[in-house]
From TrEMBL:
Keyword Membrane carried by entry: no
A matching Pfam family: DinB
UniProt name for this protein: DinB family protein
Annotated signal peptide: none
Key word Metal-binding present: yes
Similarity comment: family membership: Belongs to the DinB family.
Database matches in InterPro entries: DinB, DinB/YfiT-like
Keyword vocabulary terms for this entry: Metal-binding
């Protein structure tokens, strides 16, 4: 079973790379979209950060609660600030999760499983999208990228 004492530091190794990725400031990268209709670099970074907080909240509360706000941003600095805020809030939530909460059954989009399953999937989700950000940056011409973790 997942253990919060090892999960949180492992998650943070990946989240720290997200913070590095949102410091890249090359040719307005924050607004770069590799295909028409795709998420921009900044939107994808915020999707990663907000989704992880949403799933941590779900585990903490024992049920899915959709986010109540939509991120408003226009600049790289806005994205950096929001990613930082999501990270700090998520760290607090993760620190509060108990073993009992990890074992509790939760239903999310038709799947019922112990909460720890969703927390594991959340990390996979973050890693998947972080890989997309690294790819976006390469496509946009960024030469120096942080290591993936």
């Amino acid at each position: 079973m997942l253990n919060m004492d090892s999960y949180t530091p492992h998650w943070l190794t990946h989240r720290e790379v997200l913070h590095k990725l949102v410091t890249l400031d090359q040719d307005n990268l924050v607004h770069f979209t590799p295909w028409e209709g795709g998420m921009s670099y900044g939107t994808l970074a915020l999707h990663i950060a907000s989704s992880t907080q949403m799933f941590a909240n779900m585990v903490s509360k024992g049920e899915f609660t959709p986010p109540q706000t939509k991120d408003e941003w226009t600049t790289l600095e806005d994205v950096q600030r929001l990613v930082h805020e999501y990270t700090e809030a998520t760290k607090e939530i993760l620190a509060s999760i108990t073993n009992e909460q990890l074992q509790a059954e939760i239903t999310f989009f038709g799947q019922t499983a112990p909460a720890h399953v969703f927390l594991s999937k959340t990390l996979d989700h973050e890693i998947h999208h972080k890989g997309q950000l690294l790819t976006y940056a390469r496509i946009a011409g960024v030469k120096e990228l942080p290591f993936f973790m």
